[in-house]
TrEMBL record:
GO molecular function: DNA-binding transcription factor activity, RNA polymerase II-specific; RNA polymerase II cis-regulatory region sequence-specific DNA binding; zinc ion binding
The name this protein goes by in its record: GZF1 protein
InterPro entries linked: BTB/POZ_dom, SKP1/BTB/POZ_sf, ZnFinger_BTB_dom_contain
Locations listed in the record: Nucleus
Keyword annotations: DNA-binding, Metal-binding, Nucleus, Repeat, Transcription, Transcription regulation, Zinc, Zinc-finger
Pfam families: BTB
GO cellular component: nucleus
Record domain BTB: where: 31-103
């Protein structure tokens, strides 16, 4: 008797994997790279995992695949002209697939995504910018329509019957 193959697929495994990698990073466990960022004299260091960075960023993938193991398994990468808050948000995104930033930072996040060649973050920022633009356009359209209605009302005063006592 032949058995048909069945698919065993976990819906929670990808998110569980990301959550566990994030916890390992936050605790500094198994981190094999330190990314130093500096912008206008403000500098910070971020421990991370090469595999996560390489899987989410073509920039890091190229760096790690082309590096020569001189100092052992731990690497150091230096990024200048990257704001500390932006790189922290980038790391949170690649480790959790989500990050909360102020609206005025979305453009900077898009720029860091493009600099680090992170397609998922680029697409996410682009989609959010598109939604924000559509929202502004809708507000403008509603405002314009309400202005037109007010102008039409002013041009054609309505006749209201008056009651006589």
């Amino acid at each position: 008797m032949e058995s048909n193959p069945v698919l065993l697929e976990s819906k929670s495994s990808p998110i569980n994997l990301l959550n566990e990698m994030q916890q390992l990073r936050l605790l500094g466990h198994l981190c094999d790279v330190t990314v130093s960022v500096e912008y206008q004299g403000v500098r910070a260091e971020f421990p991370a995992h090469k595999a996560v960075l390489a899987a989410t960023s073509k920039f890091f993938k190229e760096v790690f695949l082309n590096e020569k193991p001189v100092d052992g398994p731990h690497s150091n990468v230096f990024l200048n002209e990257v704001q500390v808050a932006d790189f922290a948000s980038f790391l949170e995104f690649v480790y959790t697939a989500r990050v909360e930033v102020e609206e005025d930072r979305v453009q900077r996040m898009l720029e860091i995504a493009e600099k680090l060649k992170c397609l998922d973050l680029s697409e996410t920022c682009f989609q959010l910018k598109k939604q924000m633009l559509e929202s502004v356009l809708l507000e403008l359209q509603n405002f314009s329509e309400s202005q037109n209605s007010e102008e039409e009302s002013a041009a054609c005063p309505s006749t209201v019957p008056t009651a006589k006592a």
